[in-house]
Design a protein that fits this description.
Signal peptide: 1-17
Order of helices and strands: HHEEEHHHEHHHHHH
InterPro entries: F10E9.3-like
Keywords: Signal
Number of strands: 4
Strand order of the largest sheet: 1-4
Structural class: mainly alpha
Largest sheet: 2 strands, antiparallel
Shape: elongated
Number of helices: 11
Strand content: 5-15%
Length: 177
Amino acid sequence: MLTFFIFFALILGTVESAPRWSTQKLIEVIERSCPPKNLLCPNPQYGLFDGYYWEWDYEAIRNSDMAQTFHQAPELDLPLLKSLKKEYCCRHGPCLIRCGIFPKKEIDLIEAFPRNAADLFSLNLPELEPYRGHVDKYIKLLKLVPEPIVPAEIEEFFDTVHKHRNLIRSRLNKNQL
């Protein structure tokens, strides 16, 4: 009987320490977290680079400390997903250039967003009015999520601001805003 309990305890210990998530699942999560279409690429230690062409270094991913953390995680929760993205994805700086993603300098009116949103809408320009609700909603989202994905409506708002920048600047100067 004692042998049975020892055997059961060994099995339980093995099950308890066995990976909960596969390496394939880890790679799938990373690829979905860092898609090139979102202007993201691998951190240098997790990518194989040939000029601007790159692919994931699956061996480096498998051998990383974060992979071990992932394998033992009880669930795929938001903090774990954020940690994976921070570990494996390049989101800022020189590593983006290595992938052929170059920083884009926005005009001052867009750089000042969302601080200047109230001033922009106080001009009552009909070109901006269709975006008021979207901008309000996005500003509320910014208070909850530090770096949310920018919705298409906000991108369109930026395009409209850019298109009418001369009119907006002259009105802001006239109103001393």
